[in-house]
Amino acid sequence: MTLARVLEETRRTLEANGIEEAAVEADLFLMKALGVDRAGLYASPERTLSTEERQTLARDMARRLNGEPWPYISGHREFYGLDFRVGPRVFIPRPETELLVDLALEAAHALPADRTILIADACTGSGAIAIALAVHLPNARFYATDMSTLTLDVAQRNCEDHGVEDRVTILDGDLLRGVPSGLDIVVSNPPYVPRTELPYLAREVRTETLVSLDGGDGGLEIIRALVPQALGRLRRPGTFIMELSPEQGDAVREMCLAIAPDADVTLHNDLAGLTRAIRAMLP
């Protein structure tokens, strides 16, 4: 069977199993199996696959059709223009989370030029947020926390891949436990999915670690613990930035103002026009 035929059958199989970006993923599966880039994939449509290439494709497709997301199969995910290692039980960074990086960079650039910027990333997962910021803020120092040893190992490897391991301190801790006060920026993408909604998430999302998704009662359980920790560790001026679901904006805004009545608290939309982040700025 020619490569062109295999590519078409792979696309059709993915489509039949409800994979939204079937054409894109078909290319990715074949590129991985053949060890080529997209140009190489389309350079020889009449070639046939070797036994090893067919076995790799079959094995990867079986994982995908069983509900495993592509980043776990490939072992990588792009975020903010950078490549990150991911794997089973490590939360996959999403494009909408790039908004947090944008807001944090804006806050960092507004600080006094002579200040050594200290930033904490709570619930760091793969380390994507902290590392993306570290790449763009070479004079800043970071604390990145998580409770999963596996996750922290992946985050450490990602730090090393991007050459920021000397400025990003990986900490095993619950939220901001172990992180000192005097921070300039706290950023976080905490678990915020209401526990009652977890069974109804897409199957591939449910293959990710539930502890990275489960926000408890109303999705606010972790957030209620994080907000006072974050605001309490900031020096002035300082900024707290957090991802949330569109329905949680007003409630979290009230939490922030109850702790810091003089804060400038604003909600920010993602590219889909949905409320996706909150920013609380202490004067």
Structure description:
- The chain is 41% helix and 19% strand.
- A hairpin with a 2-residue loop joins strand 1 (76-79) and strand 2 (82-85).
- The longest helix has 15 residues, at 51-65.
- The model has no long low-confidence stretch (mean pLDDT 95).
- The protein is elongated, with a radius of gyration of 21 Å.
- The protein has helices at residues 3-16, 22-34, 38-43, 51-65, 70-74, 98-109, 128-136, 149-161, 203-206, 221-233, 249-259; strands at 76-79, 82-85, 118-122, 141-146, 168-172, 183-188, 234-243, 264-269, 275-282.
- The termini are far apart.
- It has eleven helices and nine strands.
- The strands form two sheets. It has a seven-stranded mixed sheet with strand order 5-4-3-6-7-9-8, with helices on both faces.
- It is an alpha/beta fold and 283 residues long.
Provide key terms for this protein.
alpha/beta; 11 helices
Summarize the topology.
Blueprint: H1 3-16, H2 22-34, H3 38-43, H4 51-65, H5 70-74, E1 76-79, E2 82-85, H6 98-109, E3 118-122, H7 128-136, E4 141-146, H8 149-161, E5 168-172, E6 183-188, H9 203-206, H10 221-233, E7 234-243, H11 249-259, E8 264-269, E9 275-282
Parallel strand pairs: 3-4, 3-6, 4-5, 6-7
Antiparallel strand pairs: 1-2, 7-9, 8-9
Helix pairs in contact: 1-2, 2-4, 6-7, 10-11
Summed up, the helix count is: 11
What is the residue-mean pLDDT, rounded to a whole number?
95
Radius of gyration: 21 Å
Number of strands: 9
Order of helices and strands: HHHHHEEHEHEHEEHHEHEE
| Side-by-side strand order of the widest sheet | 5-4-3-6-7-9-8
State the secondary-structure class: alpha/beta
Helical content class: 40-55%
Global morphology: elongated
